[in-house]
Amino acid sequence: MIDLHIHTTCSDGQFSPEETIRMAHQAGVTAAAVTDHDTVSGIVAASAAAVACGMTFFPGIEISVQGGKELHILGYGVHPDSDVLHQFCAKHAADRTERCGKMLAYLQKKGAAITLEDVRRCNQGKTSGRPHFARTLVELGYASSVQDAFEKYLTTPEFYARVERPKPTPEEGIRVIRSAGGVAVLAHPHQLKLENDALDALVAKLKVVGLQGIEAYYSRHTPEQTQFYLHLAEKYDLLYTCGSDFHGPVIKPEIHLGTGIDKNLCVTDAAITARLQAAIAAASRRS
Ligand code: AMP
Ligand code: ZN
Ligand code: FE
Ligand code: FE
C-alpha cells in the first residue's frame, strides 16, 4: 500500500517519526511520505526508519496557504537542508507561536478558559497546532470531541478572521517547495468545499504557478470525488497521489495508516510512486 500523507509529533501527529513509520510498515504500507505541517524536522529520522523497514520513502511537507479555509499544498522530495525551506519554516513557526497567544485570548473570550500550561500538559509539551488546542478543550470539558472543538471554536468565521496566522500565498508555497527541489501537490481538494467548476478553475490557476499534482485518493474523498480529481489530473496533465492524513487515534480516530477510513483507501497503484519518483528526479536536476 502507498500512503503519502502522514503526520508525526514533529507537527500535530501523535507518534514520533520512527514510531509512525514502523506502524505504517506493520499496517502493510510499502511506500510512505511524512508530510508534517510547515516543518521538515521529522524527515531524517523517518527516512532512516523507512530504510530499516525496507520501505520506499518520500521526504515531504504540508504547507497551509491563503485562499479557501484549508488550502494545503504537499511538497514531495524536498531537500530537508534547503535554506529557502528553513527560512520559510522558521517564519511560520514564529507566526504559529504568536497565534497561540491569540488563540488563548479568543478561547478565553468564548468562555473556554484554558492556559498554555494546560495545552502543554495535554500534548507532551507541544502547543503549535490547532489539534493541540482541540485536545486540551476536550480534556478540560469545553468540547465533546476534537471534531466538536474544531466546529465550536477553531473553524468559525471569527477564528479565521481574528485568530488565524498569516499564511503564504499559494504561489509562494509552491515556489518554496520547488526551490527546495520538491514537487508541489494540491492536498485533499474536497476540504476546499468548492463546486466542481470552481475547483477546476483553481487547479488551472495553480498549475500556471507550478502545481504538479493533485491528491486524488484521500481518506475523506467519496469514490465520485476521487473520480473527478483523477479527471482533473488528466485534464491538466498533473500527477495524482494518495494519502490517509494519519495523525493518530487521539486526533483523527477514524483514519488509519495506508487503509484510510474503514479500508476506503488501500491504494496499490505503482504508477503513483513511479511517476512521483520521476518528477522528483526531474525537479532535482532543475534545482
Ligand atoms: P493548523 O495547521 O494548526 O492550523 O491545524 C491544521 C490541522 O487541523 C490539520 O491537521 C487538520 O487536519 C486539522 N483540522 C482542520 N479542521 C479540522 C476538523 N474540522 N476536525 C479535525 N481536525 C481538523
Ligand atoms: Zn495536522
Ligand atoms: Fe491538510
Ligand atoms: Fe495533513
Distance between the termini: 30 Å
DSSP summary: helix tally: 11
What is the number of strand segments? 7
Shape: globular
Task: Kindly provide the radius of gyration, computed on alpha-carbon positions and rounded to a whole number of angstroms.
Answer: 18 Å
Runs in which pLDDT lies below 50 for 5 or more consecutive residues are none
Q: Strand portion, in percent?
A: 5-15%
Average per-residue pLDDT, rounded, comes to: 96
Helix content: 40-55%
Order of helices and strands: EHEHEEHHHHHHEHEHEH
Summarize the structure in words:
By secondary structure, the protein is of the alpha/beta class. 47% of the residues lie in helices and 14% in strands. Helix 9 (196-208) links the parallel strand 5 and strand 6. 47% of the residues are buried. Residues 12, 37, 64, 129-131, 146-147, 150, 155 line the site of adenosine monophosphate.
Summarize the structure.
With 287 residues, this protein is an alpha/beta fold. The chain is 47% helix and 14% strand.
Topology (SSEs and partners):
Blueprint: E1 2-6, H1 17-27, E2 31-34, H2 43-53, E3 56-65, E4 71-76, H3 83-109, H4 116-122, H5 130-139, H6 146-154, H7 157-163, H8 170-179, E5 183-186, H9 196-208, E6 213-218, H10 223-235, E7 239-243, H11 270-286
Parallel strand pairs: 1-2, 2-3, 5-6, 6-7
Antiparallel strand pairs: 3-4, 4-5
Helix pairs in contact: 1-2, 4-5, 5-6
The chain binds adenosine monophosphate, zinc ion (ZN) and fe (iii) ion (2 copies).
